[in-house]
Design goal:
There is one protein chain. Helix content is 30%, strand content 16%. It is of the alpha/beta class. It has a seven-stranded mixed beta sheet. It has a six-stranded mixed barrel with strand order 31-35-32-34-33-36. It has a five-stranded parallel beta sheet with strand order 20-17-16-21-22.
């Protein structure tokens, strides 16, 4: 029953050497890469050596002394985990002497360990228990009455401070695996060994418990622990699982693979999947622990309808809700025209569900009024990379960073927003015994963790003013061009000569120098020049003649600007100019914010593009889809989300189908959004909770969480991974089935029996997905698009290796244009926004978990100088006012933010962060300029008028919901 808990653990990491050595272990000939440990070599030969301190996700440590072996011609009993295999070795893993030694070691362990195996939470999944059986331990000669850590006053209290796991010191064998996991895998260094000898014990932080320490609750220590010392509370409560399924995390764009360990339909725990290509067995607090929202009491599982948003909800059957929604959409179209309705796809739903929503809009609604939340985050990535390279996605795998010599992070906070990749990046930045750490350049208005954290320090932090990204990227290019650091051979072979010549002349102009742009960016010229040289040339100790691998990783601090698309093209220019595209360790890598932002774009969620980024006006492409779908498609691009709002206020866009997105909380200028929704005649929201948008809806269709459906997600590295149904949908239908029901009611039947059939249609119609199938994904673990006849079976790991998708790489001139959001006497500060580790996006999922214990409210970060000028102290309530609106938050006075700039997150609806963001947007894509809003900040004594109105409206809407549920419950 517990076989699924047992995984092959090779004990030590694999050697990357290409040189092979052959040896004999227990008489078997084994050939392994040079540098492989004897322990791992033994596993390769089908032999398992007992171990406790060793695991193949951590460097060998050699402390437990269970893995001793004998080597012919050598004295003693070396540890197999720390002894490398050598050619010609003859190794014995079992002998009478080894048996006695191992028994003696295990006897010592057990003499200071409670013998409560039958009632222990790790019973059935305990390596100490397993090893005691393997070595044949039958008695403990020392007895159990001497000095110990598990009886009476000697037994330390169990630390239950963390909401997700316990720490029981009495069961600790001091193997050091948790400490090493925190250091090597996570890179937080929150744990240490305190005391000496017999008094040695694991300590979190300063000894005040896990919650008071720097622990980020990634779970690496829990996963590494071989006993019940560190144990998930769900396992303590529910016991061991009886089966498991592989699935994909539904949080950020890293796309971590998880093994969901279950009892029936109940999830016991989520364990990071060792074979997951995106995460390789690591996780963060959200994916590892914050999945309880899926069964939260706030889940709505009954469809509801109402005539007006001021009316109470009425719970109805699925049949009535679907019929009502369809008839309302048809009524609106009959009254206002075919183009008067549209829909928004979700970056949290699967590829298959997104594909069906855009298909419904184009085929059943009869227009192209479809958009997605990617509009408000990474649409400039699609435009900018499409213009320069010919495709709308990042170039690398996450693992590629391990080959980087220099890493440039622009407008991203990987350790908070993409923490598993952030840990991988930190590991490369720290370096190891084999090679020095990579150089690091951070371009951000705020001092993010990477700037200065344990064993990681940025070589250059270019703390620019918000809104000046383009001036900065052009200044960096100016240094590289004028100092002669261009990759001339690469440019001649791979790039368009005419566009390069024009770009080179432009960036070389004196007005683009670091000295000239310093007055714009606020960054000292010598820092810009130093950063440019590091990116182009590597560190001073970089081996002469060896090509420098420099990689750029960027986030919403690049795209969410009035010049977001321009900045993406500037980044692409810089990478091409230095030859840093098309191999391991380099590239241009957008860090996607949500689990399926990449997939929602791939699936044709933009009003001008069909799946695969093919323009709707192209008659050949359109004919393919018309043939497959059996309808005539409109050649005219539809409305973007901002256009939908404007049209609603003008009276021409009156119906909206919104699946899995909360545009009221996530889109800018909240009051403008709510006014537009209030003007519509039919708003249909499909979600798992009554989110902020649903409070303006006329029809509510219950959605399904990632645990309740099959499908696929596509992460930031173009990796397509399976989402596996773990339980039946709480409301009866998965999201793709709901869309199918609505489409049928609209007169356009879809007859898919399973999402694999939807993916088969996607593959048939989308060249970059032509080789994608569920069978292949399940066999290989994942695939990366492009995946077709012209690629490897698993798709394309590194893009643009021989040539760019568009042929020759195109340089584009990036003229800096100042944003319209300027500081004034009335609004003298600039507000910028971001995320925090424990919360996710609008918080609908994480706010319904114990993650609130780390971050229970959005706060405003303000520099001490600005705070002092305004009489603001840490923890004070402050009003933040812009030309769009006003809200009130609690202040955090910190030097992480520069003078003249304030910062907040947007995870809590009552905060109203987007009440103050404006309608300023990117020139090419309408991506909102969340990162630059001119504001004033002053102490206040009460909530803003918007917050007071929100509270009244929210109470009213929750009252309507409660009344409907009570009425249904009484029937």
């Amino acid at each position: 029953m517990l076989e699924h808990l047992k995984n092959t653990d090779c004990g030590t990491p694999a050697s990357l050497s290409e040189e092979l050595v052959t040896l004999h272990i227990d008489g078997r000939e084994v050939t392994v890469p040079k540098g492989t440990s004897l322990m791992r070599a033994a596993v390769d030969g089908g032999i398992k050596v007992p171990k406790l301190c060793a695991t193949d996700s951590l460097e060998p440590f050699g402390s437990c002394r269970l893995c001793l072996v004998q080597i012919e011609g050598r004295k003693g009993f070396p540890a197999s985990c720390t002894t490398p295999a050598e050619a010609g070795m003859k190794v014995r893993t079992q002998s009478p002497q080894l048996q006695e030694l191992r028994k003696g070691v295990m006897e010592l362990y057990i003499s200071d360990h409670p013998l409560d195996c039958l009632t222990c939470s790790s019973n059935g999944d305990c390596e100490l228990q397993d090893m005691a059986g393997v070595v044949g331990l039958r008695e403990v000669r020392y007895g159990m009455d001497g000095a110990n850590h598990f009886k009476g006053e000697a037994r330390a209290e169990v630390d239950t401070s963390n909401p997700y796991f316990n720490y029981d010191p009495s069961k600790c064998i001091v193997c050091n695996r948790c400490v090493r996991a925190c250091e090597e895998t996570q890179g937080t260094f929150a744990l240490t060994i305190s005391g000496r000898g017999f008094e040695s014990r694991i300590t979190a932080g300063q000894g005040d418990g896990f919650m008071a320490s720097d622990c980020v609750s990634c779970g690496a220590c829990v996963q590494a622990c071989p006993t019940a010392t560190l144990q998930e509370k769900t396992v303590v409560e529910l016991g061991q699982s009886e089966h498991s399924e592989i699935t994909t995390c539904a949080y950020c764009g890293v796309g971590c693979g998880f093994k969901a360990e279950m009892k029936g339909e109940q999830v016991v725990r989520m364990v990071p999947w060792k074979d997951g290509r995106a995460n390789e067995g690591h996780a963060c607090v959200k994916g590892r622990f914050a999945w309880g929202y899926a069964t939260h009491k706030d889940r709505i599982t009954q469809p509801m309808i109402r005539a007006k948003i001021t009316d109470p909800w009425r719970e109805v059957s699925w049949e009535e809700a679907i019929a009502h929604a369809a008839s309302e959409f048809r009524r609106v179209q009959a009254k206002h025209g075919r183009d008067s309705i549209g829909g928004i796809t979700s970056s949290r739903c699967t590829n298959e569900e997104t594909y069906l929503v855009q298909k419904l809009i184009r085929a059943a609604f009869g227009n192209n009024n479809v958009d997605t939340c990617a509009r408000v985050c990474h649409s400039p990535t699609g435009y900018g990379l499409g213009q320069t390279y010919g495709t709308s996605a990042g170039t690398q795998t996450f693992k590629s960073v391990e080959h980087s010599d220099v890493i440039m992070v622009i407008g991203a906070n990987p350790t908070a927003a993409h923490p598993v990749f952030g840990s991988r990046m930190k590991k490369r930045l720290r370096g190891d015994a084999r090679r020095a750490g990579a150089g690091l350049i951070v371009i951000d208005p705020r001092e993010i963790e990477l700037v200065n954290s344990p064993h990681v320090k940025a070589d250059y932090h270019l703390q620019l003013r918000p809104g000046t990204n383009v001036a900065m990227i052009t200044a960096l290019a100016h240094v590289i061009v004028t100092e002669g650091w261009l990759a001339d051979a690469y440019i001649d072979e791979r790039c368009d000569a005419k566009s390069f010549a024009q770009w080179k002349e432009f960036v070389a102009r004196p007005e683009n120098s670091p000295e000239a742009t310093a007055q714009i960016t606020g960054v000292a010229p010598e820092l810009v020049r130093g950063a440019a040289r590091l990116y182009a040339l590597g560190s001073a100790d970089h081996p002469q003649g060896k090509q420098v691998n420099s990689a750029i990783y960027y986030g919403l601090g690049v795209t969410e600007h009035a010049q977001g698309s321009t900045m993406v093209m500037g980044i692409a220019n810089l990478a091409m100019a230095t030859g840093n595209v098309g191999r391991e360790g380099v590239g241009v890598n957008p860090l996607r914010g949500q689990n399926n932002v990449q997939g929602s774009c791939d699936m044709g969620s933009f009003p001008h593009e069909l799946p695969g980024y093919r323009h709707i006006s192209d008659s050949i492409t359109r004919a393919e889809f018309e043939g497959a779908w059996g309808v005539k498609l409109s050649p005219e691009p539809g409305l973007r989300i901002p256009n939908m709002f404007e049209a609603a206020l003008e009276g021409s866009f009156m119906g909206l189908y919104c699946e899995g997105e909360d545009i009221v909380q996530s889109d800018p200028n909240t009051q403008h959004v709510t006014a537009a929704l209030s003007a519509m005649e039919c708003v249909v929201v499909q979600d798992i909770f009554l989110n902020e948008t649903a409070k303006y809806a006329h029809v509510f269709l219950p959605g399904s969480s990632f645990m309740e459906k099959d499908g696929t997600f596509t992460n930031a590295e173009r990796r397509i991974s399976r989402v596996t149904q773990l339980m039946q949908p709480l409301a009866g239908y998965a999201d793709w089935e709901v869309t199918q029901l609505l489409s049928k009611a609209l007169g356009y039947p879809m007859n898919y029996a399973h999402p694999r059939e939807i993916m088969a249609e996607i593959a048939a119609l989308t060249p970059t997905f032509a080789g994608v199938s569920y069978e292949k994904i399940e066999r290989l673990g994942s695939v990366q698009w492009p995946c077709n006849e012209g690629t490897e079976e698993a798709g394309t790991a590194i893009m643009h290796q021989e040539r760019f998708v568009r042929g020759k790489g195109r340089f584009i001139i990036t003229q800096y244009v100042a944003t319209d959001e300027k500081v004034t006497q009335r609004f003298p500060l600039l507000l910028t926004t971001g995320r925090i580790l424990s919360q996710y996006n609008v918080g609908a999922q994480t706010r319904r978990t114990a993650n609130n214990q780390w971050h229970g409210e959005d706060r405003l970060e303000i520099h001490p100088h600005d705070a002092q000028d305004r009489g603001i102290r840490d923890g004070d309530w402050v009003g933040i006012e812009s030309r769009a609106g006003q809200t009130v938050l609690r202040a955090t006075v910190t030097e992480r933010i520069q003078p003249g700039v304030v910062y907040t997150t947007f995870h809590f609806p009552e905060s109203g962060a987007n009440v103050i963001t404006t309608d300023s947007s990117d020139w090419a894509t309408n991506c909102p300029e969340y990162k630059v809003t001119a504001v004033q900040v002053l102490p206040v004594a009460q909530p803003s008028s918007w917050q007071q109105g929100y509270r009244r409206f929210n109470d009213q809407q929750l009252g309507h919901l409660a009344a409907a549920q009570l009425e249904m419950g009484s029937q």
